[in-house]
Design goal:
With about 625 residues, the chain is an alpha+beta fold. Among the domains are: about 210 residues, Beta-galactosidase, Chain A, domain 5, CATH 2.70.98; about 55 residues, no CATH class. The chain has 16 helices and 38 strands. Strands 1, 2, 3, 4, 5, 10, 14 and 15 form an eight-stranded antiparallel sheet that branches. Strands 6-7-8-9-16-13-12-11 form an eight-stranded antiparallel sheet. A four-stranded antiparallel sheet has the order 17-34-35-36, covered by helices on one side. A hairpin with a 2-residue loop joins strand 3 and strand 4. Helix 5 runs antiparallel to helix 6. The longest helix has 18 residues. It is globular. The two termini are about 40 Å apart.
Length: about 625
């Protein structure tokens, strides 16, 4: 559960160990766990019966104890997690909380001690300028401080799960005492875990309106999903995607997180892959804020992978330029382009410095496939061919146009019979050739062969394999040389619809919904799957599900805004029925698409392969 960077990862039996569970604000942890006991019986997996997930901000759990049923509701706010317990019987409820204020890269610290104070309606535990707050309008706190050790990651190890970044390291454990309350049958007990100080009126308002807030947010998700009304696209997948996108977004801090529980940082590459969906959803101001924040990070090395990171992969700056141009096409806003104009000579110099014999020379682990040492990678050539075309369109820089033409030509020279090789002079049939199709920098006569190759050699029952199952480098247990990556499945979905392969596109969407969605994390899609469909990696990855709105608008419906030229292009699609409402250039535009026919409240010019809506 997450809202604006506050997130709760409750329980983890995925590949990322349990030390990443708990309550976090961004990459700052506050609480390891909370536990409730009614009488002498804890609410636990032994009496747990049902979990209901409504959206990323509200869920309920049902327990059946020896004394009767207990309902636990959990609500996520910007800076706090509200837990409400309602038993069907009279009892004494006791709450125990494990506090562990730490940064993401910290483990056990000897002598770690908190300053505990009782405050109005709660307690406060302070450490090095950070504080964890527990608010309880009813009940009594009995101070009984306990300092100890625990290793939450041992759970994953004992279960025999593959683990990342958690070898069962010892963590500090601090329990300030216990909170107790005599509760009546069907009475609700509320307790708030917060990363900031709150006054009683604010606490009371959150508690009183928890259902109202949850319902309002649910209505937002439903309303947003109706903007992507296509008869062949499962609306539940659309709603899950939109809810996911919001859950990874921190609107307050202008950040986008790559996934949960571990990837709770602003990863630029992941954000830039997903950002076009915000344009399709009409959230132009957030796209502008994100691009502005990223633009200030551009230097002679390019752009880092995380907002304050030290690694500078070769693809991030290119993706930024592509998204900048997309934003311009949706808004005609020149302010960001003018800002980047001051850096255009530096950008061209940086990119030119990467060129070697007409190729961008990425070295080692400078791509999204950062577990493999690669160079002259096909997706890097594709991204930069597209980026230089965008650069030319924005700045009319002839050197950028020439570079784009060279990169595109040399990229296409990597074609071997039916596929684009993964790297120059390295004959590997990988999924990275999808980038070239997705960014439309493949020669037209090669497209059909490449698509067929991907369909027959890389498409499995559970999505797109990172490497062809027939390739000598394929490894069933491999991370980036064998595993299925749903974000590649999304990109290939776009390619299928763009190239008139509606049946293939629908098949891929069905895989995302029925084989990938909801596997290990409610309404989310894992980072990777093994070829047999076993869910692996991060259980809630942003780019695995976040491309859906953009894919539906641009590739399924065929809608491409060009607001600088006061028009919208609607490419003709076969076997598609859809309705779309768009607010662009201060105008409310309705579209009704029926196969190759389009109706609108604005004038349409029909050409052989598309309609042009003139604003």
């Amino acid at each position: 559960m997450s809202k604006n960077g506050m997130f709760l990862f409750r329980f983890n039996n995925s590949e990322f160990g349990s030390k990443w569970c708990g309550i976090w604000k961004g990459n700052q942890k506050y609480f390891d766990y909370f536990a409730f006991k009614l009488g002498d019986e804890f609410l636990s997996e032994s009496n747990f019966k049902k979990f209901s997930f409504y959206n990323s901000q509200f869920s309920t759990l049902l327990f059946e104890t020896s004394n009767g049923k207990v309902i636990e509701e959990v609500k996520c706010y910007d800076d706090s997690i509200l837990v409400s317990i309602t038993p069907s019987f009279d009892s004494v409820i006791t709450c125990e909380v494990g506090i562990n204020i730490r940064k993401r890269d910290e483990n056990y610290e000897k002598g770690k001690r908190y300053n505990l104070t009782e405050i109005k309606n709660g307690i406060k535990a302070e450490l090095n300028g950070k504080a964890a707050y527990i608010y309880f309008p009813n009940g009594n706190f009995e101070k009984e401080e306990y300092y100890g050790l625990h290793s939450p990651g041992l759970y994953a190890l004992k279960m025999g799960l593959t683990h990342y970044l958690d070898n069962g390291e010892v963590q500090n454990k601090y329990v300030p005492g216990s909170i107790t309350y005599k509760i009546k049958a069907n009475e609700t007990y509320d307790i708030l875990f917060s990363s900031k100080e709150m006054d009683f009126d604010s606490i009371y308002k959150l508690i009183k309106n928890k259902i109202k807030y949850a319902e309002e947010y649910g209505e937002i998700i439903k309303s947003e999903s109706k903007k992507f009304d296509v008869d062949t696209v499962d609306n539940e997948l659309v709603m899950d995607s939109i809810d996911s996108i919001y859950s990874y977004t921190n609107f307050n801090e202008k950040e986008f997180y790559a996934g949960f529980p571990y990837f709770n940082e602003f990863w630029l590459r992941d954000a830039l892959i997903v950002l076009p969906s915000f344009l399709s959803m009409g959230n132009f101001s957030f796209v502008r804020d994100i691009l502005l924040k990223i633009a200030y990070k551009i230097d002679e090395k390019g752009l880092p992978n995380t907002i304050n990171g030290s690694l500078y992969p070769k693809d991030v700056l290119g993706l930024f330029l592509i998204d900048l141009y997309e934003y311009f096409k949706y808004t005609a806003d020149t302010s960001l382009i003018n800002l980047v104009a001051d850096k255009k000579e530096s950008i061209m110099k940086t990119c030119s410095g990467w060129i070697e014999n007409g190729f961008i020379h990425d070295k080692g682990n400078e791509t999204w496939m950062d577990s493999l040492s690669r160079e002259f990678s096909v997706e890097i050539q594709a991204i930069w061919a597209k980026a230089m075309l965008a650069f030319y369109s924005m700045f009319k820089d002839q050197n950028a146009k020439a570079m784009a033409d060279t990169l595109k030509k040399n990229l296409n020279s990597m074609f071997k019979e039916s596929y684009l090789m993964d790297q120059k002079d390295k004959d590997i049939n990988s999924a990275n050739q999808i980038f070239a199709l997705y960014f439309n920098v493949v020669d037209s006569e090669k497209k059909e062969k490449i698509i067929k190759n991907i369909e027959y050699n890389l498409l499995s029952e559970y999505g797109i394999l990172s490497v062809s199952k027939n390739d000598k480098t394929f490894n069933f247990n491999g991370y980036q040389n064998g595993a299925i990556w749903p974000f590649l499945t999304e990109m290939f979905t776009a390619v299928a619809f763009e190239n008139g392969k509606t049946e293939l596109g629908e098949k891929l969407l069905s895989i995302l919904k029925n084989k990938n969605d909801n596997t290990q994390c409610s309404s989310r899609i894992n980072e990777i799957f093994q070829p047999d469909g076993s869910a692996k990696g991060c259980p809630s990855q942003a780019w695995s599900i976040g491309l859906i709105p953009f894919i539906i608008e641009r590739y399924v419906m065929g809608i491409e805004p060009d607001i600088p030229n006061a028009e919208i292009i609607i490419n003709k699609r076969n076997e598609i029925k859809a309705k779309k409402e768009i607010n662009l250039a201060g105008k409310r535009i309705t579209l009704e698409i029926n196969n190759s026919n389009v109706k609108s409240n604005y004038g349409l010019l029909e050409l052989s392969d598309k309609f042009i809506l003139e604003l």
